[in-house]
Amino acid sequence: MPEANTRRISSHAALCAVGAAILFSTGGAAIKTASLTGLQVASVRSGVAAIVLLLWVRGRVEWSWRVAGVGVVYAATLVLFVASTKLTTAANAIFLQSTAPLYIAVLAPALLGERFRPRDLVLLGAAVLGLAMCFAGSTAPTATAPNPGAGNLLGVACSMTWALTLLGLRGMARRGAHEAISCVVAGNVFACAAGATALWPLPTASAADWLMLGYLGAFQIAGAYILLTRAAAHLPALKLSLLLLIEPVLNPIWTWVARGEEPGIWTLAGGAVIVVASIAQAMTPAWLGYEMSSATESQKDSES
């Protein structure tokens, strides 16, 4: 494939990843606004997302053990993120999830054959430092963050499952975009089923709550993952995870505007360390060269 075409495809994939990150970033404010419990929100959100995604692919979903495996990990991410956001500040929940590149940098070479460079150690160190600062900045319980300690622990678990989800989607996208979107459908079906018992009897909720849940499922999840699976087919897993760090920049802003939730100074500082280090890493010419060569090699592997 000519280099110009490769660059064009990579640029389009990067734009898809940015669009997905913007949609993802609205989740914290919307989840905080909904009056239902975390499990109820996760179940309804995923149920709506599964329906929208099934309509998008016209019911054509490929089922296999690989699809189911990635789907289970993704379902865990969906439930853990909502639970974490309900218990701690939206900023802490998303900044902790944003340490996923730490695990991806370590696992991608072994699982996907995507090379690890010594300069990636800067990102790993920044992620560890930022993680420690977020925990140091845990605040006392508030109306919007009733149990920050437990929420932070769930956020760490979410970062691990999110890393595995991105690795799984990247691996499946190499086999075909349809297999990747099938994983997303499966994950939402599993997450909806996991919280189904919490929906009986049907919870009392306002029309605004149901509209918010509809938005979460149709746009914040389904729309975002349609874009994400397209991006995953052409970007290395680490690069993809770095572009998604736009989400933690915007997430606390939306939550502050919608709910008046102010993250602590340590949380903001820790998040800034993670995001700035990741952006700096992504913008170095040598690393961009790695992205292009890795993406090209992955394309050749998928074509052979």
Number of strands: 0
Counting DSSP H or I runs of 4 or more residues, the number of helices is 14
| Helix-strand string | HHHHHHHHHHHHHH
How big a fraction of the residues is strand? under 5%
Give the termini separation: 13 Å
What is the CA-atom radius of gyration, in angstroms? Answer: 18 Å
Biggest sheet architecture: none
pLDDT averaged over residues? 82
Whole-number total of structural domains: 1
Shape: globular
Short key terms for the protein model shown above:
79% helix; 304 residues
What does this structure look like?
The chain is mostly helical and 304 residues long. It has one domain (33-303). 79% of the residues lie in helices and 0% in strands. The protein is built from 14 helices and no strands. The chain has helices spanning 3-25, 27-33, 38-56, 65-87, 90-97, 100-112, 120-136, 148-175, 177-194, 207-232, 237-243, 246-259, 265-283, 285-303.
Task: Give the gist of this structure.
The protein has 304 residues and is an all-alpha fold.
Describe the SSE topology.
Layout: H1 3-25, H2 27-33, H3 38-56, H4 65-87, H5 90-97, H6 100-112, H7 120-136, H8 148-175, H9 177-194, H10 207-232, H11 237-243, H12 246-259, H13 265-283, H14 285-303
